[in-house]
Amino acid sequence: MEYGIQQVLPWLDRDEIDRVAGTIEAKWLTEGPCCREFLERLKGITGSGYAVFAPNGTLGLFLALLALDLPRGSEIIIPSFTFYASASSAVFAGLRPVFADVDPDTYNLDPDGIERLITPRTKAIMPVHVYGHACDMDRVMAIARAHDLRVVEDAAQAFGVRFRGTHAGTFGDVGVISFFADKTITTGEGAVVLTQDEGLHKRLLLLRNQGRPNSGTFLHPALGMNFRITDMQAAVGLSQLGKFEEIRRRKAENHERYRSRLGDAGDLRFMKVQPGSDFVPFRFCVRTEAKDRLQAALEAAGVQTRSFFYPMHLQPMLREYAAGPLPVAERLYETGTCLPIHPFLTEGDIDRIAETIRGVFRA
Ligand SMILES: *Cc1c(COP(=O)(O)O)cnc(C)c1O
Fold first, then answer.
1. Three-state SS for 240?
2. Which residues contact 18 (CB under 8 A, 6 or more apart)?
3. According to a count of CB atoms within 10 Å of the terminal CB, is the N or C end of the chain lower?
4. Which pLDDT value is given to residue 267?
């Protein structure tokens, strides 16, 4: 179906086209000068000591988990309310996900629920920073330190998000930011894997480059694969960095506009931003008992809606790791809808969406 208002719309213009054309004219297709520049810029923005690219966020998480070299079958605590890749990457890396519930206001990992899930087999935690703000990383890191657990941050949605001044993805041993087409800035596909640890960086480099320190040799001292990206993607990424502040400003403005139009509508409830965290709105998130009617009305009005995540512990392929109900994650799915907040929404679009929603509650 063609939507009048799409859920996401990346901001791409002549600048991306010219920069991609430049890499093709320079005959750099694989990792080259744009990759080097984009990586240095990302390290500067995030304050990460080291960084490597991965083909996408999913493979970035997989690479990060491989680099930790945890014993096969180790348990890793992962919020149930996340995108599937947080959990599938752990299973592919030979780990057992243990699903945790989340906070009903922030939708992020609930620190109060973590410690009771820790067993002698627990080796890691994967906090996921969802919908544009960070987990309470003071508490997550304190628990990790107290129990000697590694921390892998899924910061796929958290480009530009800082918690008490530190960028999401740089608290733990390793963190991953995605540049998929629906993320804050995009390279189409792509991701960056961040670490402050020199040893982990060395392992990431070997794992992503066929188990060798340098390309062009056929001696492979370690086991590795190919996780390269292309210079064309990095060219797009460099252009996107120039747009980030304006993307953030427009999304924040749209967020405010929604709140002022919808503050008192029906039983609508809104996400609360984690104290101490920046907010780079990812979607406009609303919860209501009338989720199905709300989505139907919006779809009929040509507005593309998305449900919240379907909990990991209920996923057909992950059910074997489930250890009972996780009521908050389940309630979020039952009630939650993501509304578009992309930089090209107009004031009229938001008024129309808000009026449609108000109509649902009048009916
Ligand atoms: C998008 C996303 C991923 C996966 O990133 P891709 O680049 O799409 O593979 C992982 N975790 C979360 C929370 C995401 O939103």
1. helix
2. none
3. N
4. 96
